[in-house]
Structure prediction request, 254 residues.
Amino acid sequence: MTGNSTGAAHEPPILQAVALHKRFGTLDVLRGIDLKVRRGEMVFLIGPSGSGKSTLLRCCNRLEEPTSGAVIVDGTDITAPGVDLNAARRTIGMVFQAFNLYPHKTALGNVTLALVKVRRLSRAEARERAMAALADVGLADKAGTYPGALSGGQQQRVAIARALALEPKVMLFDEPTSALDPELVGDVLDVMRKVREAGMTMLVVSHEMRFAAEAADRVIFMDAGLIVEEGPPAALFGAPREARTQAFLSRVNH
Prediction:
C-alpha cells in the first residue's frame, strides 16, 4: 500500500473514534462508531445522504460535539474535559464543500492568515510557507488573485493549500468536489492524489467513486449512523458482502 510505512500496521492509529454517538434532539445520527485510521492512510467514507458521514467527519475535529464516545488524534483524546481544543485542531486540516475563503483577501492572503493567527509565524515566514503551499496545488501564479476571480476548482485548491500550510497530521475532506462544475473536479482530485502521495493521512467524504476505487487504501460504507462494511476498494466495490452496500452501489453506478 503506497503512503504507508512498513511498520504502520503496528503503530497506534493516528485518528481513532471510539463508540462515537451523536444525537440531534431525538435523532441518532451516529450510533456507536468505531473507526481507526493509520498514519499515511487514505480512507473514503461513502453512503447515502443522511447516513452520518459528514457528522462523523465534523466530530473528528469537534466542529460537532459528540454526544458520547471519544476521538483520539495522535494519542490525544480531543474530547477529554479540559483539552486544549485550539492546539488539537492545529493537527487536523479540514477542507469543506463550500470553500470558505475570505472574499476580500487574495489567494495568498487567505493562506497566510491562519499561519500568522494560529501558527504565530512572522509575516515573512507565513508568506514563504503560503507561497510554497500555493505552488503545491498549482496556483503560485494566482497568489495575488481574489477568490471572486478564481474558478470554483481554483478556490477549492486555495482552500486545500490553506489547510496544508498549517502542516496538519490529518486532513479531513467533506465533499470537496460536490460544489464544482464537472470539468473542474479533475484538478482538485489531482491535488488530493498528490497530497496522498506525499504521505498525508486523509479521511474523505465524497461521491467520487472512481477516484475512491483508484486512490483509497480503504473504503467505509455508512448507513443510518453505522459502519455497515469496510475494506479495500477492490473488495468493497467489486464484491460487497452486505445487502445495503450492494443496493447503494447499484444505485450510484447507474
